[in-house]
Amino acid sequence: MGKVLMIGAGGVATVAAFKIVQNQDVFTEFMIASRRKEKCDALVKAIHDKGYKADIKTAQVDADDVEQLKELFNSFKPELVINLALPYQDLTIMDACLACGCNYLDTANYEPKDEAHFEYSWQWAYKDKFEKAGLTAILGCGFDPGVSQAYTAYAAKHHFDEIHYLDIVDCNAGNHHKAFATNFNPEINIREITQKGLYYENGKWIETEPLAVHQDLTYPNIGPRDSYLMHHEELESLVKNYPTIKRARFWMTFGKQYLTYLDCIQILGMSRIDEIEYEAPLADGSGKTAKVKIVPLQFLKAVLPNPQDLGENYDGETSIGCRIRGIKDGKEQTYYIYNNCKHQDAYNETGMQGVSYTTGVPAMAGAMMFFKGLWRKPGVWNVEDFDPDPFLEVLNKQGLPWHEEFGGDLEL
Q1: I want to staple 200 with a disulfide (CB 3.0 to 4.6 A). Which of 10, 56, 248, 295 is the partner?
Q2: 283: Cα within 13 Å, side-chain hemisphere
Q3: Where are the transmembrane segments (predicted)?
C-alpha cells in the first residue's frame, strides 16, 4: 500500500520501525536513513533478531543538507517521509519533500539551532506551498504533541459542545536507576525544560519563570506526583482550533533529584547552546594543543547516558492524558482521557523504554492514517485537524490503549 522513508535511528525511530514492520500490509516498502548508516543497519539487525522478516533498505543522509535529501528522495521515491530526526532539521526536510513530491510527517515542531525557542509559525508558513503541490504535511504526530491533540479532538467530537479548560498532564513514574539521564535526546530535552513556562488564559499567553509553577497531581495507578507547568507546542494549535477554550496548560512531572542535577548543569554553564573556545590536545600524541569550538550542551549530551540504552533496567510506567472541563447539553462536565504505558512492556517488544514507545507508536499510526487515505489532504496540518476516531482505534490495537473518566475531580 505505501512506500515510506524514515529519517532517524534513535529511540523513537526504533519503536516506529518495529511498528512499521509489524504492519507490512500497510507499509509495503521501507527505508531508514540517518547521518550514520551503521545506526540504521544496527536497527535493521535488531528487528531481524526479534524474528521479523522484512526487506528494509538503509541509507546515509545529512538531514541539514537539502541537496543530499533531494538526491535520496529522488532515488527511493517515497510517498511519505517520516521525520524522526532533530527539530532543527524540520524545514530542510520539508523543503526537500516539496522539491521531490513527497508527503511529510513529524513528531516535534521546528526550532532554530541557535535559539532555545519553538513554535509552529515556521512550519505553518509552508501551508500554501504544500497545498499548491498537492502534498500533505502532518505536524507533531507523537504523543504530546500528537495523541494529546487527538484526545482533545475526540472529546470535542463526542463529549462536549464547548471545551473551556484544558490541562495536558504528562507523568513519567519510571526509574531507570541512573543518577541523571534524559528520556530522549539530552540536547533537545534540556533546551525544552529550561525555557520559560507559557500557558493560555482568556485570550492571552502568560509567561512564567522556568518550572516555577507546580502542584501535586494524582495519576492513575501511580498516585500523586509534583507536576510542573511548562510551555508545550500543542497548546498553540489547540487554542487556535478550539476558540471556546478559556485556559490551556501543560504539566510534566520531575523528581527532586532530576531537578537538582538540572540546577547544577545550569549553574556550571553546561546548558549553554552558544559556542565557546577550548584548548584541546591533538590526537597525534605530540602533546601539542589547538583551539577548538564546542557547544557545552552538545558536549554534555556526549557524556550523558544514551536514552536508547535505558530500557533494559527501566521499571514503572508513564501516564499521559488530557483533563477537560466544558459544557455538554447546557451542563458543565469534566472528562479525563489518558494512557498508561509500562516501560518493561515497551522494552520487551522493541528494546526501548516507554517514553520512546509512546512517541514512536503514534508516528506509525499517523503514517497508517495517511496511507489508508484517512488523513490525506493538501496543506500543513496538526493532528486535531483530522478525524481522531480511526487514529485512536489503531493506538488501542498497537500498544497504547486509552481510558476515560467522566465527572471526576480534575484537581485543576
Answers
A1: 248
A2: 1
A3: none
